[in-house]
């Protein structure tokens, strides 16, 4: 059975999954477009709080993925919803982030401010290229005064055209270092955005899709959904092997082309395949065999089948190749 036959909706991450910076990832536009034509709904769930939904939808449309603002759910929206539990209408909220974040705060009935001297009830911290020492210092002062600290997301890096750049979580770490206060996180890996997107689509069986284990996949797992991990962004093969049980995807693929390829869903699950075999000896997984033409991804799924056989901590696990095919496959993981 193909993915489009098993699931009725795709809850898609953006950065590292659909695009990198301003460039669509190869096969992404065609795959999502064809999946939608096959009757599978799509929503875009992003931890990036620097753009409003309308701007994200316009960017997607410009890449060839016709989208409406209602198709997009950002961590900034989730953060504002969380803020309503800690502030009353008309209260000041200090916004560290893009102007669109402040607009969401205003639309929710709060007063966005930029200074701790306004005695904000909440500090909302989201990504913006303009965030710097001055903005972070105002946040630290407000948090020290007792404001509730909420981050749109805790992604330490942000995939861009030139590579992995500083993400919101790294900026949050500076405020935490200065205050000792760890914020509540509104975005992934919390399940709220996944649950809301599922409800908005009226989906009975959605598939969470992403490139980052500690946010996209962990969020899908937390929301008790199947998850597809694509190897086009942050988390690679070695991260998958070391993944704790809370970050283990259901399916693993190279990229989104798997949505429309003539491939059985079962072939995407961790299992012995491609003629590879694997066995565990303590913290070592011995990978052997391998048919002619077998792929590094088949070798990875074989190793994962053994690594994920239980909920053991795999942080120290190493994969040792015991055949030429296994050696070639594991070298491709790096």
TrEMBL record:
Molecular-function GO terms, alphabetical: phosphatase activity
GO terms for cellular component: cytoplasm
Gene3D superfamilies per the UniProt record, alphabetical: HAD superfamily/HAD-like
Domain GCN5-related N-acetyltransferase-like residue range list: 273-333
InterPro entries: GNAT-like (IPR041065), HAD-like_sf (IPR036412), HAD-SF_hydro_IIA (IPR006357), HAD_sf (IPR023214)
Entries under Pfam families matching the protein: GNAT_like, Hydrolase_6, Hydrolase_like
Domain of life from the UniProt record: Bacteria
NCBIfam families per the UniProt record, alphabetical: HAD-SF-IIA (TIGR01460)
Name of protein: Haloacid Dehalogenase Superfamily Class (Subfamily) IIA
